[in-house]
Amino acid sequence: MGSTISLRRIRFDKCPLPLQASLNPLVMTALTDSQLSTFQEEGYLIVRSLFDIEEADILRQAAKTESAFEEKAYNLDDGEGGQQRLVLWNSAGEDLWGAIARSNRIVNTMEQLFGDEVYHYHSKMSIKQPRTGGAWAWHQDYGYWYQNGCLYPDMGSAFIAVDPNTKENGCLQVLRASHKLGRVEHGRFGDQTGADPERVKEAAKVMELVYVELDPGDTLFFHSNLLHRSDQNTSDQPRWSLICCYNTKHNNPYKDSHHPSYTPLVKLPESAIKEMGEKLFSNGTDFWNPKKDPTTGAGKKTEA
To answer: Which of 84, 151, 207, 278 reaches 20 to 30 Å from 180, CA-CA?
Structure first.
C-alpha cells in the first residue's frame, strides 16, 4: 500500500489503511497514479472530508427535513427482525440532491476511476433508524444492474456519510479486492437480493473484511463488483447515507429498464452545493419502490 496522507486516520478494524485522496477537494484536479492503482487493486477509495463541515451540515439538515424521505421511503425486511428504509430516484435535478450528484468533485473522480465519461444512473438514501435499522446482505451492485442490460461492470457508486457511520450503527463492510471475483450469482433472501452465500463464505476466507467507518462528509467510491454488506443498527444513533450511482458512457444499456440510459451529465461547480442550500426535491421527481424493482421483483415508479 502507498503512503497515507489525511487530516484524520481511517478507523478500520484490524487492517492496513487504504490510500486516501489527500488533496483539498475544493482544488482537487486529478487523482494520483497511486490512488488510481489502489482503486484498481482494492475496489474502493475513501476521500475524507470531500464535503466540508458547512456542506455536511447542509446535507444532514436537508435530509432530516426532506418530506420525500418519509413519504417515499420503503421498509425492507432484513430477515433478521430489522428493517432497512430506502428512498431511490433517477433524476439529478435542480435541487440539493442533484447538485451533489452532479458536483465536479464526485463526477470528475468517478470519470478518472473508470477512464470514461459517466452519467447519473440513480441516487438513493439509505436510512437505518436507531435500534431498528436493518442489515444488508452481502451483495454486489452489479448483481442487480447486470439485469438492466449493462454488459460491463464498469459502474460505481459514491457513498456519502450523512451521519457518522460506525460499527455500532451498522457502517458498510467490504471484502477488500472482491471486485476481482467477477459477478457472483445473486438470489432472494427475505426482501433483499444477495450474493451466493457459499461463494461469499469462501471469499471471506481469503479476503480481508473492512469496516468502513466514516464521518459526515466523508465519501467512499467503490466498484460495482465489490462485495459489501452492513449490520443492523443496534445503537441509539441514526445512520443515514446518500449513495450516488454512475454508469460509464461505453456501457450504455442495450435494453430499457427502470434506470436511465446514457444522458450527458451537466457538471456543477463546487460552489453549487452551498448556493443550492436546502432546496429540496421538486414536484414530479420520480421515485422507485425497491420492493417492486425489476432486480428484486416487478418494477413500478411513483411520482412526488
So the answer is: 84
Sequence length of the chain is 304
Strands 83-89 and 20-21 come out as: unpaired
Among the residues of 88-228, which ranges form H helices?
96-101, 104-114, 141-145, 197-206
Q: Residue 272's closest CA among 137, 96, 92?
A: 96
Q: Percentage of the chain with pLDDT > 90?
A: 67
Exposure string over 155-168, b if 16+ CB within 10 A, otherwise e: bbbbbbbbbbbbbe
Q: Is 266 exposed, middle or buried (0-12, 13-18, 19+ CB in 10 A)?
A: exposed
Q: Are 223 and 44 in contact (CB under 8 A)?
A: yes
pTM: 0.86
CATH topology assigned to domain 31-303: Jelly Rolls (2.60.120)
Q: Which amino acid type is present at position 184?
A: V
Domain boundaries, the chain: 31-303
3-state DSSP of 106-124: HHHHHHHHHCCCEEEEEEE
Read off the pLDDT of each residue in 149-171 and give the average, rounded to a whole number. Answer: 98
The separation between CA 103 and the C-alpha centre of its own chain, rounded to angstroms, equals 15
